[in-house]
TrEMBL record:
NCBIfam families: apbA_panE. Its EC number is 1.1.1.169. Catalyzes the NADPH-dependent reduction of ketopantoate into pantoic acid. PANTHER family: 2-DEHYDROPANTOATE 2-REDUCTASE, PROBABLE 2-DEHYDROPANTOATE 2-REDUCTASE. One of its GO terms (molecular function) is 2-dehydropantoate 2-reductase activity. It catalyses: (R)-pantoate + NADP(+) = 2-dehydropantoate + NADPH + H(+). Residues 177-283 form the Ketopantoate reductase C-terminal domain. Residues 6-138 form the Ketopantoate reductase N-terminal domain. Keywords: NADP, Oxidoreductase, Pantothenate biosynthesis. The keyword Phosphoprotein does not apply. Pathway: Cofactor biosynthesis; (R)-pantothenate biosynthesis; (R)-pantoate from 3-methyl-2-oxobutanoate: step 2/2. This is 2-dehydropantoate 2-reductase. It is an enzyme of class 1 (oxidoreductase).
Length: 312
């Protein structure tokens, strides 16, 4: 199969790491800015530090969406999900039959692309952590292969995309039951992305501390009950094991929501705890997600405090 141009939207922790890995393996890659569209184009020498201290370096071209009249190849979304509605609008006229793949956390993040009738939409559930150490240097830790499934598209398209984006250090695999995977990872994120920023601690806390793990189990069991109301049946033991595996493999790494609060950026909590609490609320079963909801509200307050210190 011929290699396609890969356009990665969002020059953040995941986008830069993925771009560097792909470029270092000879792929044609362009990083497109997510929230900027100022027409500037430049290159950046990106360095990705692996767990064994090995450093992968690559010179990556960075541009903006408006520099292209068409995006032919593959579009990979690594922007924050709250930018999706605006990005769908900006990409719509430029992608024709080009597939898009969404590498983001959370429930229903693909909705704007479905509403705009993008022809091929694939969704990736990430099992890796990436943290910016400086503007062009990242710390990357894989947990396991990240799962990719079909939202709208074909099995052939799915296989081709996984093949295109798979690299030695950031691995992807196909997932036939992507909605169950999205829910199971979202539940894990409901724990990490609320408890870690509130405790101001790294991801390793759940395998190091039994009391934190006990809170995690409460949240997981609540969210599993909400998932069941949507026809998604998950095993509590499997979700807890997934949480523990991530905790162990990303020991020392900070969860994205904690990085957002520290860096005074908006968080994605609305697609995590808040999304699950809203489902329970809409069913008039608020009690199903009581602790999950409370943790989400605390993150909203913590985030508002951080953001308001920007303007003061
Ligand atoms: N980092 C991690 O370890 C993991 C992250 N994820 C998920 O991957 C996705 C990307 O995360 P991550 O790379 O950490 O995030 P970062 O915040 O590091 O980068 C995301 C990029 O999104 C773009 N962006 C921010 N706000 C907007 C907006 N309003 N509109 C459009 N684009 C915007 C910016 O791109 P630009 O600078 O080009 O404008 C930013 O650099 C998220 O959904 C996250 O939850 C999942 C698992 C692990
Ligand atoms: C749970 C974790 C660490 C797994 O990749 C993650 O999703 C994040 O950092 O946002």
């Amino acid at each position: 199969m011929n290699s396609k141009a890969i356009f990665i939207v969002g020059a953040g922790a995941i986008g830069k790491a993925l771009a560097a890995f792909l470029k270092s393996e000879g792929k044609e890659v362009v990083l497109l800015r997510g929230h900027l569209d100022d027409h500037s184009a430049y290159t950046e020498q990106i360095e990705v530090v692996l767990k064994n201290s090995e450093v992968i370096k690559a010179e990556v071209p960075i541009s903006t969406i408006s520099n292209y009249s068409e995006l032919n190849g593959l579009v990979v979304l690594t922007n924050k999900s709250y930018g999706n509605a605006a990005i769908a609008q900006r990409l719509k006229a430029k992608i024709n039959a080009t597939p898009i793949i969404i590498l983001q956390n959370g429930l229903n993040v693909e909705k704007p692309f479905i509403e705009h009738k993008f022809p091929q939409i694939y969704r990736c559930v990430l099992f890796a952590t990436s943290q910016l150490l400086s503007e062009n240097k990242l710390q990357f830790m894989p947990v396991s292969d990240s799962s990719v499934g079909i939202i709208s598209g074909t099995n052939e398209g799915l296989l081709s995309i996984v093949n295109e984006i798979n690299t030695q250090h950031f691995k992807f695999k196909t997932e036939p039951n992507i909605y169950a995977k999205i829910w199971s990872k979202t539940i894990v994120n409901c724990v990490f992305n609320s408890v870690c920023p509130l405790l101001e601690i790294d991801n390793g806390i759940f395998y190091r501390n039994s009391e934190a793990l006990s809170i995690a189990k409460t949240v997981i069991n609540e969210c599993i009950a909400v998932a069941a109301t949507q026809g998604i049946l998950l095993s509590s033991e499997e979700v807890i094991n997934s949480l523990l595996l991530i905790s162990q493999h990303s020991d020392g790494q900070l969860i994205s929501t904690y990085q957002d609060i520290i860096n005074k950026r908006k968080t994605e909590i609305d697609t995590l705890n808040v999304a699950i609490a809203t489902i329970a609320d809409n069913l008039q079963e608020k009690r199903l997600a009581k602790e999950t909801s409370l943790l989400g509200e605390l993150i909203q307050i913590k985030s508002q405090i951080a953001l308001s210190s920007l303007s003061s």
